[in-house]
Amino acid sequence: MKKTIGILGGMGPMATADLFQKITALTAAEGDSGHIRIYIDSNASIPDRTAAILDGGEDPVPAMTDSLRKLEACGAGCVIMPCNTAHYFLPRLVERTELPFVSMIGAAASACRARFPGKAVGILATTGTLSAGLYQEALAAQGAPFLEPGGVEREALMEVIYQGVKAGAPPSRYREAFRSVIESMAGQGAECFLLACTELPLAVRALGLDLPCVDPTEELAKAAIRFCGYSVRGE
Q: What is the dihedral of CA 179, 115, 87, 177, to 10 degrees?
């Protein structure tokens, strides 16, 4: 029996829209009726995940649990979250629902090994995701070598994410900051890049960059499509 998808979104809204678009584009459907039924709760008021992890900010889990309850009431068959940092709280969310989660972290790490075997992966992410070690652990489990951005690069990435994409700034505002991170990490040996914040694929697209990279949002979309019993276009 085919399943439906519940998107626990709003973290942020543009990333949620991007995930929905990718699921639709990647589903091998011949017409409207061949697509997956999707429920979206885009709650942009969920407290910032990085602030909660690093600075003792407000716990986002109660608001995320409220979204879970709404998705349960709709009839979602699984849950996905278009926010890498939010996966730090996944163990607590799993305890609060019987709905299965499809993990963005696992899907993206597997894609790194499959698409860039033996290549050093440069992890581009929020300071919250990096400090939590989410992708370091997942990549290590896959046997994939990786590099983390240093302090200066982390600050630049946060600028791209928060003052750039989340703020709706034009690409010209964050072009140099993003390029500086890519050039620095490539100089340190990164051979491909993991766009481990859901705003970063949007930044790459807006900037027109041609990078050897893995987009976790896209990999999550593919994993969710398969989980629900549908086929991924092109596979």
A: 0
